[in-house]
Design brief:
The complex is a heterodimer of chains A (421) and B (233). Chain A has 14 helices and eleven strands. Chain A is α+β, with helices and mostly antiparallel strands. In chain A, α3 packs across α13 and α11 crosses α14. The longest helix of chain B has 18 residues. Classes of the chains: A alpha+beta (421), B alpha/beta (233). Chains A and B meet through α2 and α12 of A and α1, β4 and α2 of B.
Amino acid sequence: MNELAPPAKLLPWAPERTGEAPHSLPPARRGPGFAASTWLAVRLAWRQLRSEKARLASAIAGVLFACVLVFMQLGFRGALFESATNLIGAMRGDLFLMHPLTLASFRPEPLPRVRAQQALALPEVERAVPVYLAQATWRNPESGTRRTIQLIGVDVAAGVLDFPGLAPLVDRLKRADTLAFDVRSRPEFGPVATLLEQRGTIEAEVGNRRMEVVGLIEIGPSFGADGNVVLSEVNFRRVVKERQVAAVDLVAIRLRPGSDILATQQRLRELLPRDVMVLTQAELRAHERRYWEEATPIGFIFAFGSLMGLVVGMVIVYQILFSDIASHLKEYATLKAMGYSGFYLSRVVLGAALILAVTGFIPGLALSFFLYDLVGSATFLPLRLDLAMGLSVFAMIFGMCAVAGLLAVRKLRDANPADMF
Amino acid sequence: MEPVLLRRVTYAYGEGELRRPVLRAVDLTVREGEIVLLTGPSGSGKTTLLTLIGALRAMQEGSARVLGEELNGAAEAARVDLRRRIGFIFQNHNLLGFLTARQNVAMALEQDGSLAERARLARAGELLAAVGLAGHEDRIPARLSGGQRQRVSVARALAADPGLVLADEPTAALDKASGHEVVQLLRNLAKSRGVPILLVTHDPRILDIADRIVAMEDGRIVAQEQASGAAAA
């Protein structure tokens, strides 16, 4: 065996020892910058994806699936919360007074009617009208079955609380035993709109009282009530006999034109006792919505559904990227042997993931638009796809693909250029 | 300065009782422009030696200066940098199947930041013409014959003006005629550029391209002879 000592730091034949001029190194090649090499890596990823059409199609289908699933879950979630607050959302007024213990409009805590008059103390307040809310049974005019319907009793002539379609009905609603029916109520209440069109007016039975339907308004079903009717204060009390006039459920306030809503809200809070909350319409709506978010597992269910969609999409993308690397290990090892760094190859894999994110998201978005239309018209749910939602779903899909890519990158370690020979 | 200068390179696989030495104090020098063939039975350590010189494997003992860089103790980043200055030719062509011949050759140039895309493709085209593949630039490897693919990998190995070409059994997958054609081509291109080649083979049909033939056995260099073929070429 050769028993020589291991080489010293400077080898015996090093130019420093032999007195030769130290050799000049060839000029180091400058690699392309980060942006340029990333572009080349992404282009390589695209060329690789493109070369296997079937695999690319299944990867895109996976992302598309995740994308549509998330869009639908978020759409349903938004639509359900939206419709949960249909009643409140349809009440148009500048400010509202509500009892602090009222959690949701279907179970209101009454407040003294006198607060409406007290609010008039402020010069900005033009009118303040009490609103009575109650639920009563409604008999389907065609089949005779009974369901619970939401009654909204208000001084309709005051023009403070406005619902779409209410204005032309005001005079007719002043008559005794009349009501306006919410055309967007669930169909179980009967074909009121059709009957009204055929006969002009129809009779209805509300809380054991015969009433006349004089017209249609638009509110829409909410979680608390499947249907709504609007009637005058007097007619409301005829149906709900036990209700005391002094106990109202909501006060709607109209301000003089040009008044500052927020400043008036602040002054009303100072003016009125602690047994009322002063809310803007948006705040009232948020209050109602928060109740349904907290009282029901709806938010959780849809968040969970979205997460499942993302997980499934991630697994699909990961599988595709992983098998792509596994079946191209030789090529990746060759690239490593040619001097491509692990970082460059990671960018190839991540580039592939992000290409899949974009190419899956675009058809996913288009399909979701189509499905929103289809499902929205079938269920009457207000499905809405706005820019903010599109961006946030894209961010989720992007993140999903990035995580899948980062997981798949670990497989690159198996590409060992020393095994190439 | 010699492109390859190995002193007492020792290498073993495995640990402890399973430790199996494959290289024992190998000394080897490859001079500028020289074509060296490394032969020997399988298991003699020639491929391990090639991967050490190619900076594909971390050194264990001894000293290896390749293109002026000491490899013993070199960091991974330094080895990656060195690999860019070496042209590799593998037993199987190892071309990227989803790229055309031209794009495959251009891959070797994409690490040079001074070249634009157009220049890379033009240079790749020149090299493909030099290996006799003019007109086949836009074919993918699957549509080329075995000899043509290996010629593409010769072009790829030489594209980035390497200081050294390492080849491992480049003719193993080829028949006699095309195998000989490929190594002749490699030899001529390397000679005209002054690039040294270290070529592992046990294909006796191509010994005639060598300037020097080095025989290995059991992890040691057992014989070196100045080849006769070099004078004839």
